[in-house]
Design a protein that fits this description.
Length: 306
């Protein structure tokens, strides 16, 4: 079988301004691994304005990027999006303007590509709905959680809102259900979290008890910092893990609960977000209630006899 290849030329625009060439290529060419992209840069096969560049080179408006020998067969296979997922995500859009997209992310779909993941939010939206237009995640939520997700339609908006997240100018809240009776005196948890590079990061989470349901507690949680798996780590640390958390949860308690409710969905839902629109300078606020499965878990737990 003869492989199909092409030589692609991309012109950098305002959405690419000051972005490192390696990061730009990681997002643009999903069918090539990071190691392959670095290799092509190192060998000079990827060039900007006909010149070799280092991975740290920052793009300027009008730069012409030459990308050689991308396998079209693999690329087209990667970006195939089913009609079912396209319809699902069109129905999940809760707000949209020329600058921002607000999505009610369904459970079980990762926000971006990763090892072994052929389907993700960003690719469904880019290639299935928005015809390859600029679209980037402003923040992330876990694959197995659901709820509000913000995306930017240009780089200026992306940078402004990511900066607002960094300085806690955006309010984000979650519904969670934990095992046991959450202590009334635990309202804020401050605990350091280590990232993949083993660097210590301060983290802070605010908890509000909504309801005790049999031997479980429904809580509203506000993240005051944005660390990876922050809520799941903090609840596990206190000894009151989130129901059906397969990484930081209590497997024995989850198994006992599953035997009774026959659902094993992580009970973590991003239900609230509030932010100042970076272009219109008005406050936007969105609230998304629990979906059918999470509501069903609550109903079944409420009927249990302990």
């Amino acid at each position: 079988m003869i492989k199909k290849f092409f030589l692609s030329f991309i012109t950098a625009d305002v959405n690419s301004l000051n972005q490192r060439i390696d990061n730009f290529l990681f997002k643009k060419i999903k069918c090539l691994s990071r190691n392959k992209i670095y290799s092509l840069l190192r060998k000079g096969n990827i060039r900007i304005n006909k010149k070799r560049v280092l991975p740290k080179y920052k793009l300027k408006i009008g730069d012409i990027i030459r990308i050689p020998l991308v396998d079209l067969d693999n690329y087209n296979k990667y970006i195939y999006i089913s009609k079912r997922n396209i319809l699902k995500f069109k129905n999940s859009i809760i707000y949209e303007d020329n600058f921002i997209l607000v999505l009610n992310k369904p459970y079980g779909i990762a926000v971006h590509s990763g090892t072994g993941l052929n389907i993700n939010v960003i690719d469904i939206l880019r290639y299935g709905i928005y015809n390859h237009k600029y679209l980037e995640l402003i923040h992330r939520i876990d694959k197995n959680s659901s709820g509000i997700l913000l995306l930017a339609k240009n780089r200026e908006v992306l940078c402004k809102l990511q900066n607002n997240f960094k300085y806690n100018k955006i309010i984000k809240k979650y519904f969670i259900l934990v095992h046991g009776f959450w202590p009334k005196n635990i309202k804020i948890i401050k605990k350091s979290i280590y990232n993949k590079k083993d660097k210590k990061k301060n983290s802070k989470t605010k908890f509000k008890i909504l309801k005790y349901i049999n031997n479980y507690t429904l809580l509203s949680v506000q993240t005051l910092t944005g660390r990876n798996h922050q809520i799941r780590l903090h609840t596990s640390y206190t000894g009151f893990p989130i129901v059906f958390d397969n990484i930081y949860g209590n497997k024995e308690l989850d198994k006992l609960l599953f035997d009774k409710v026959k659902i094993n969905r992580l009970f973590l839902h991003a239900y609230y977000i509030s932010y100042i629109h970076p272009i219109f300078n008005i406050r936007n606020k969105f609230i998304i209630n629990l979906d059918k499965k999470l509501n069903l878990i609550l109903k079944k737990i409420n009927k249990l006899n302990y």
